[in-house]
Amino acid sequence: MEAPALLRTLALLSIWLLQVAVPGAMASYTIGVGRADTTGPVAEIVFVVENLQKQYGDLYTENNVMISATHSHSTPGGFMLHMLFDLTTFGFVRETFDAMVNGITKSIERAHNAMVPGRLFITHGEVHGVNINRSPFAYLNNPKVERDKYRDNVDKILTQIQFYKEEDNKPLGVINWFAIHPTSMNNTNHLVSSDNIGYASILFERIMNNDSLIGKGPFVAAFASSNLGDVSPNTRGPKCEFSGNNCSKQYTCPGRKEMCFASGPGRNMFESTSIIANKMFKESWEVIGPLRVVHRYVNMVEQTAEYYNETTQRTETVRGCEPAMGYSFAAGTIDGPGSFSFRQGTTSANPMWNVVRNLLATPTNEDIKCHGAKPILLATGHMSLPYEWQPKIVATQVALIGNVVIAGVPGEFTTMSGRRLREAIKTVMNDASDDETSVIVAGLCNTYSDYVTTPEEYQIQRYEGASTIFGPHTLTIYLKQYQELVTAAILVSIRKKVSPFLLLRKNKVDCEKKIKDKGNNNTFDQKKDVESGPTPVDLRKKTLVSFVTPVLYDTPIWGKNFGDCIKQPQKLARPGDIVTAVFVSGHPRNNLMTESSFLTIERLGIDEVWLPVATDANWETKFEWQRMSMVLGSSQVTITWQVPEDIKAGEYRIRHNGYYRYILGGIFPYYGVSNHFQVLSTESSCCKRHYYE
Predict the structure, then answer these.
(1) Which pTM was predicted?
(2) Is 232 a catalytic residue?
(3) Is residue 642 part of a domain?
(4) Which cofactor does it need (predicted)?
């Protein structure tokens, strides 16, 4: 029986800790950068904070720690705790969860220990040819007057914050925000991968860290999530799987049993990922002013907000709904089609599927009315067996650094949702300062609660609308929440007699009055800190369900030992060639090799010492594990290496590192190496080919 192949591309979750060194100083921050091996995206913030408080006391809390996922659809799952998100991995996976929490904690520890006085710069640039809107019909349902403000139906701006050491202006790291889904590696992929944005991080760090192994140099680069909800990297658009015909407007392929897929600019998903990453990688101004961070938990089901209805020309009071998923959620997207006969754009229910739905939980009439255009496929707000299926309480957070606002949002905002959020925050900021404000939408922060569309996009019920779990006015509620948080952050500065901006050009008395008037109209007391909000349920205290079977034992292939190389690489390789070796192995889950590697490509140095030149974090390597016998517990791994064009000529070998579980108990390490092989440089390769021609 063949198990899914495994490529352990190192997913680096990078954390920057920013703190004003002196409250009155305007240009000096205490900055630390750190990274750790997590092989995946974000975990709930509370678990990380608990780990930090064991070491640092109350220095780090939910109020001043913001965790934003770099995002990938090709990593180990089972760590989200809420039942719906862990279904595809057969439930909760403890190994993944622990690796996630420990890795994030370790990255913050490293950033803390590396803190130095530093400076921040922000820059913006356009990136073209890498993203398209995967739900254009929903986008077109937004008001034309609003759409006409923007040239494109997706954001093309990449925002970068650069961190420099104050003493010598040495670059410490960067965070980049760009709206693109990391789905260049589509759902036919069975390899673990950090996808296009992870590869962009690797490219950036490779240049800044010179000859360091991936993830080991001092400079840290992160490509973080923004308002990517309806954004695809598959720029060729949707085509029918086999025929290559154009898909219908509902993104189906009539007449044949084939799925509607979108593909990227390359010949395959690996090449497409590389092209997108290189384009993202390819005039700034300094950020100065104090740092203010405000955090609040919000029960979305209990929230109300004012909404101006363009159709009725009236202002209405709207509210959040009990979480629910619509029919189009099951249809998937052009980046990864779903199952059965579900189609995007479904706005009416099917009696058969309603019967299936009601076996799990039946939505109330109030739920159906609240969700409006969404026919409810899963009434997750009423599903509590074996525990919560989706969150009702989410984390909202903003960080103000001078005139830069980072809005940490707990989901995937669509293009127009992100644009409206930026404008809403700028409205508050403009009441306090004439200086230019830069608003960054940092997606997938602290909590994950699926998608957020505009009310207009919601009516079309594409995948994103069907996955907007709190109903049509989810965004309306968030706009109110984030305006309140930004207002509160400014009021904190006013109370402490610290200008929140470098130059407060507006009359200070007028500014304070206007901001305080806003505060009086909101749900928090301007004389107090923002209330922390209701405490989310700690699902770790529940009996978490998992159908993932443990590793019982490993045995080597008959007549072999663990680590034996049973297929040797060719004796001679040139740049661009693929070198392959196969080893007898144990199960990779015996040890996740955190901060280490399942493989290394090694070159013989001048002092006869083998030097690692690549690991399983490099894009040019792949690590594929295959179970050869379920009964005997025997396995093998195939390691491939595509020789880079800029490789140094010399003698090389492939090394495999692993652990096996002994049938009588215990887990033990092993390693194996291949035969040596020669790699020619580009010049030698050209000459060699010319000689044989």
Answers:
(1) 0.87
(2) yes
(3) yes
(4) Zn(2+)
